[in-house]
Amino acid sequence: MSAALADWYEQTRFLVGIATLSALVVAIILFLVVRQISRQHQHSQRRLALEKQRLDTAVNNMTQGLLFFDASHRLVICNQRYIDMFGVSRDVIKPGCSFRELLMHRQETGTFTDDVDEYIEAILRNMAEGPSNAS
To answer: Which whole number is the average pLDDT over 57-65?
Structure first.
């Protein structure tokens, strides 16, 4: 019986060895792929940080005040020149602040005297009309 099973044992050991070697190769390949993805991610993060630094430098060295809002009228960028020009607080005027909140804060500080809602309505109406045709 052991002579009959000897061939089977040998094949089983061979297959277990091949399976172990295959699992090891897959693990090594997986490790190399994850390491490469991690390196690419770190490189992208460094590039993104550098580009953000460049944008911040350009925006904050402008001589004009700059505000940039997203489609939902939330503040994305506000440069230091705008803060200085209107004497507003960085605690209020920060990314995520709504256009209305910004104008209300300016009204509180005395640098905006118009009706906030009428002003917003006029701005939105002008934006919806698009650029005027100069004829």
So the answer is: 90
Q: Is the separation of the CB atoms in 109 and 86 below 8 Å?
A: yes
Task: List the chain domain ranges.
Answer: 1-61, 63-129
Collect all residues with Cβ–Cβ distance below 8 Å to 99 and sequence separation of at least 6.
Answer: 69, 73, 74, 75, 120, 123
Average pLDDT, the chain: 92
The DSSP code for 46 is: H
Euclidean distance between CA atoms 32 and 52, whole angstroms: 30
Which residues on neighbouring strands pair with residue 75, listed in sequence order? 69
Amino acid of residue 93: I
The number of CA neighbours under 13 Å toward the Cβ of 65 is 9
Total-model pTM: 0.61
The candidate with the shortest Cα–Cα distance to 109, out of 121, 101, 117, 120, is 101
pLDDT digits (tens, 9 = 90+) for 63-103: 999 999 999 999 999 999 999 999 999 999 999 999 999 99
DSSP code, position 16: H
